[in-house]
Specification:
The protein is an alpha+beta fold and 682 residues long. It has 14 helices and 28 strands. Strands 3, 4, 8, 9, 10, 11, 12, 13, 14, 17, 18 and 19 form a twelve-stranded mixed beta sheet that branches. Strands 21-22-23-26-28 form a five-stranded antiparallel beta sheet, with no helix packed on it. The protein has a four-stranded antiparallel beta sheet with strand order 20-27-24-25, with no helix packed on it. A hairpin with a 3-residue loop joins strand 5 and strand 6. Helix 3 packs parallel to helix 4 and helix 4 crosses helix 6. The radius of gyration is 46 Å and the shape is elongated.
């Protein structure tokens, strides 16, 4: 670690230690930086690998609430233009936005306006009067982009910054680069006004708004998920005169120059800067402190076109890692890199009047921008086999941002003044080419070597998930089986009902007699009149197949134990039974006029229609007029619609009186399928 206290050599394996054992902490931006070494790591390989071993995760403000992760309201657009832009589904194409700054005093009091906005997506440019021949028409050329901004800072952030933040949280690499001539408003859009943009909320640029919302969403996520851990770190790079420098490098004195760093490439083609410092961010104060420190080290000077002209390209790199401990099968550990590039403005020496060192700076700036333009043209063409990415340090560092694994935005800043006509036209054409580039962005899932204990925990979680799904499947199979049995029972009852209804008067068919000394008389009874209290005592004629047995009757009394109440003053109807309890008594009083030759033994039995098991029988008595006096109570619980319909139907009860002479033998008849009732002796 290189710190203010000297240099300590640390083996690279130290940085590859387990992510799970990383401690938490970090400098909060207030007070002296006594433990700055705890928040500083020097990159000796791929920054993502170094990031995993760093200390300093975000801290929870309270106990986590175990709940379903939700999309934070912070990610929702706040301006009308932002809400309109969010309706359009983005893909991996480079998104291009153009910001048209207002006229300034640098353009002159009588400057001609040649560039105009056409709604939220278009621009039109006309040729300046001084460049047109006499009587030449001022033909306008139109350009169309994903966004065109003429308003305040919040519109830019709403349409560009919030979608970038959402993609980064989902695990995508994202890049934003601001391009335009010097003085067109690039740094103002990215950082804010010189000297106060980081801390001024009203004029804050995209970067401070982005970082503030990133920290807020991260804090919400930590409170929703007890297993989640989030690490955020940043670095700042400057490319000055084709030399790569670390803007956050710790120097012994402010007068010491920044060190020149080298660009390297890993085996899997990832580009990184060897020796770049990586700083943990745990809160917004820490971010402000780092940004102010980095901007103070950037090369800025005054030119004829810009009082605070950037003399270098700056790249702010934010590393975001989201991990779960213990690992969860339903949540991915993801990481992303956010690159925000503030390019130095293209310059014409004739306008800036730069000489000496400023002139050399301009040549290097224009060279790197020209190489970036060639790379963009090559990517947009889609046919060239060679892309000149190694021709400059800038294109090499941004190689993943065009055609690679990143979602990319371009913010082109232009001036409406005729004085800057050629530079603005060049910028718009530059942006038009960028629209044709399609990247290959993908979610960066962290491929981590888990220890045995972690693998066992993950196996246990998956096993529990499997058991839960298996139990759910078993319950569904059981429910399917039960429904199949119900269907089979209903089909059986339907078939039996059809068989019974085919008999005359809905009576069961008489069985053939096996003995001439047997008398069988049958009768049936409906309960509808009994329930509706129209009658309670009935005399039923016994139907038999013998010609000499006419006149035999059965006397039955049926009545409910409790009076059933109807609605209002209406007469009681069977339908009033729905959902109620009913207690019914069936009293078999006796029989009369049984032929004398069959009176040796006489008895009566009865069943409910379709009964199969429950048969109720009186005692056996001799004589033609036996008095059975046999009572049975039937208790029905809360009556369903099916039972109500059953009680209202005809022939609910079927009676059979049997008489026999001496040495008689017979075959008793047994009706089928009774309803489920509860019986007790009366």
């Amino acid at each position: 670690f290189r710190t203010a206290y000297g240099t300590t050599h640390v083996h690279r394996s130290t940085f590859m230690s387990s992510l799970r054992s990383a401690t938490r902490g970090g400098y909060d931006g207030s007070g002296p930086k006594k433990k700055d070494a705890d928040n500083l790591t020097i990159v000796r390989g791929c920054p993502n690998d170094t990031m995993r071993s760093m200390t300093g995760s975000l801290q929870r403000s309270g106990s986590p609430r175990n709940g379903t992760p939700r999309i934070s309201t912070i990610l929702e657009p706040q301006t009308p233009k932002g809400k309109l832009s969010r309706k359009n589904k983005r893909d991996n194409r480079v998104q291009v936005a153009v910001r048209l700054r207002p006229m300034t005093k640098a353009d002159g009091a009588a400057a001609e306006t040649v560039l105009f906005a056409q709604g939220d997506f278009g621009l039109s440019m006309k040729k300046p009067e001084e460049s047109r021949r006499p009587n030449e028409r001022a033909d306008e050329k139109s350009f169309w982009y994903d966004h065109v901004f003429t308003g305040a800072q919040d519109e830019v952030y709403d349409c560009v910054g919030r979608p970038m933040l959402q993609d980064a949280l989902e695990g995508y690499n994202v890049t934003l680069f601001a391009y335009g001539q010097t003085g067109s408003g690039k740094t103002f859009s990215i950082q804010g006004p010189a000297g106060k943009g980081i801390v001024d909320d009203d004029f804050a640029g995209l970067v401070p708004r982005f970082c503030k919302d990133l920290l807020s969403v991260a804090q919400e996520s930590l409170e929703m998920d007890a297993t989640l851990s989030i690490k955020i770190a940043l670095s700042m790079i400057e490319i000055y005169n084709e030399k790569v420098r670390d803007l956050l490098e710790t120097r012994k004195s402010k007068n010491d120059p920044l060190s020149d760093l080298e660009i390297h490439e890993t085996k899997d083609k990832k580009i990184y800067v060897e020796g770049l410092s990586l700083h943990t961010v745990t809160n917004y104060n820490r971010f402000v402190s780092l940004m102010q420190r980095g901007l103070a080290n950037r090369q800025v000077s005054e030119t004829n076109m810009n009082e605070h002209s950037s003399r270098s390209h700056s790249i702010l790199q934010i590393y975001l890692a989201q991990t779960h401990d213990p690992p969860r099968p339903d949540a991915k550990d993801v990481e992303s890199v956010i690159n925000i590039v503030d390019l130095a403005g293209s310059e014409r020496q004739g306008k800036t009047q730069s000489t000496g060192e400023r002139f050399e700076e301009s040549k290097k700036i224009n060279h790197s921008l020209m190489m970036l333009g060639r790379a963009l043209n090559t990517f947009s063409d889609g046919k060239a086999e060679y892309v000149p990415l190694r021709e400059s340090k800038l294109t090499r560092l941004l190689s993943e941002s065009f055609g690679g694994n990143a979602r990319t935005w371009m913010l082109a800043c232009v001036s409406p003044s005729a004085y800057n006509y050629h530079e603005s036209m060049s910028t718009l054409q530059y942006a038009q080419n960028a629209k044709a580039i399609v990247n290959k962005a993908k979610v960066n899932a962290m491929q981590e070597k888990l220890e045995l204990k972690q693998l066992q925990q993950k196996y246990g979680s998956l096993e529990k998930l499997f058991d839960a799904e298996r139990e759910k499947t078993r319950q569904l199979q059981l429910e399917l089986q039960q429904r199949g049995e119900v269907i089979h029972q209903l089909q059986t009852e339907l078939a039996e009902s059809k068989a019974v209804s085919s008999c005359p008067d809905n009576l069961p068919p008489l069985l053939p007699l096996r003995n001439p000394n047997m008398f069988i008389g049958r009768a049936h009874l409906s309960l509808k009149n009994i329930i509706e209290l129209n009658s309670n005592y009935v005399t039923l004629p016994l139907i038999t197949d013998r010609e000499d047995c006419d006149g035999a009757i059965l006397m039955v009394s049926t009545y409910p134990l409790r009076k059933i109440k109807a609605q209002g003053d209406e007469v009681v109807k069977v339908r009033d039974l729905l959902g109620k309890r009913m207690d019914l008594v069936v009293h078999v009083i006796g029989a009369k006029n049984i032929p004398a030759q069959y009176t040796s033994s006489v008895y009566c039995k009865y069943v409910f229609r379709h009964a199969e098991k429950d048969v109720y029988q009186t005692r056996e008595l001799p004589g033609p007029n036996p008095e059975f006096d046999y009572k049975k109570r039937f208790a029905f619980g809360s009556l369903t619609q099916q039972l109500v319909d059953y009680l209202a139907s005809a022939n609910v009860l079927t009676f059979e009186v049997l008489g026999q002479g001496k040495q008689a033998a017979y075959l008793a008849w047994s009706p089928k399928t009774p309803p489920a009732v509860e019986a007790s002796d009366g």
